[in-house]
Design a protein that fits this description.
By secondary structure, the protein is α/β, with parallel strands linked by helices. Helix content is about 45%, strand content about 15%. Helix 11 crosses helix 13. About 40% of the residues are buried.
Length: about 325
């Protein structure tokens, strides 16, 4: 998702200053992503300016990284005062808030026009500082609900890889940080330069779809001693059949009204949504584990080709063909 991409920040002079703010528990992959994009000099690119990079923390010195090693941080929060872009690669404790000095510096950076960028749980740092209020934002799908619960003023978008809200940008977890950093290069220097940086990194310059393709979607089991379990078992074994509510109610020996009520009580989802999810999950497995054409997969899960493509795209964020290609690649 993108908004206001014409609001690119240009630095004064020949370099655009990027300050990467870390905490104890910094994630090495996310930190490495930021450094790879913004700390590596690229003299081979025909651009009038590039990025300068500073690693900073509230307390300079060694900071423990995930995996048991330390990252030696030389700069303090003064680096945020001079930065054109502030990046937070992650925030280790999603139940905590940033300190008052960090919150003040993040708000000050926003107020003077610097860009703020977070990867994965870094959105919690921005939210606790108050700079995400009223803005769309995202984070790792595992933490999206908690972000919304803790910060109701934030418009959380759990299904996307990243959100560009102009001066404030957020991404989902881990590899989505690559997508967002390259998006920023694309904003600053255009798609050709972003593509060349992506080639150097041996990654896609732009990925289709969103987080939905990666979200674990286990289906709640029905109680074994309940007639709903009979209908659930029948549906799983007969995905290619007509599985409307009337059919499943007859299998459960309940009226349609009773069946719908008891189904939602047992599985916390409507029968229609549950069936759609089952068909998507079965289709995902067949697309990856078999060479069946999409038409055959659609038939096996009880949908027309057009219906399967639409249902799959809505649930996963990619077309069946794109999902198969990406997972196999």
């Amino acid at each position: 998702m993108r908004q206001n991409n014409d609001m690119t920040v240009r630095s004064r002079g020949s370099a655009h200053r990027v300050a990467c703010l870390v905490f104890d528990g910094v994630a090495p992959f996310e930190l490495g992503t930021v450094a790879e994009v913004f700390a590596v000099s690229r003299p081979e690119l025909d651009v009038s300016w590039w990025y300068s990079f500073t690693l900073c923390a509230q307390r300079p010195g060694p900071h423990r990284a995930t995996g048991g090693f330390d990252v030696d941080v030389k700069a303090g929060l003064d680096a945020l005062r001079r930065a054109d872009t502030v990046v937070i690669p992650n925030f280790p404790d999603v139940e905590a808030d940033v300190s008052a000095p960090v919150a003040r510096q993040l708000r000050a950076a926003r107020d003077r026009g610097a860009r703020l960028l977070s990867i994965c749980t870094g959105a919690f740092a921005l939210a606790s500082a108050g700079v995400l209020d009223g803005l769309p934002a995202t984070t790792h799908w595992r933490h999206a609900r908690r972000l919304q619960e803790r910060f109701p003023a934030v418009d959380v978008r759990p299904g996307v890889l990243y959100v560009d809200a102009g001066r404030v940008l957020t991404s989902a977890g881990t590899a989505a940080g690559i997508d967002l950093c390259l998006h920023l290069v694309r904003r600053d220097h255009g798609p050709a330069i972003a593509g060349r940086v992506a080639n150097r990194m041996v990654v896609a310059a732009h990925r289709e779809g969103g987080q939905s393709q990666f979200v674990e979607q286990p289906v709640e089991p029905a109680p074994a001693d309940d007639p709903i379990a009979t209908a659930v078992g029948y549906a799983k074994e007969n995905l290619s059949a007509d599985l409307n509510v009337d059919v499943l109610a007859r299998v459960a020996h309940l009226s349609t009204r009773q069946f719908e009520r008891r189904f939602q009580e047992a599985l916390r989802v409507t029968p229609g949504r549950w069936i759609a999810r089952q068909r998507i999950e079965a289709g995902r497995a067949m697309l990856v584990d078999s060479d069946l054409p999409v038409e055959a997969v659609a038939e096996r899960v009880g949908l027309s080709v057009a219906g399967f493509r639409a249902t799959f795209k809505q649930g996963v964020g990619l077309s069946p063909a794109a999902y198969r290609a990406q997972r196999r690649a």
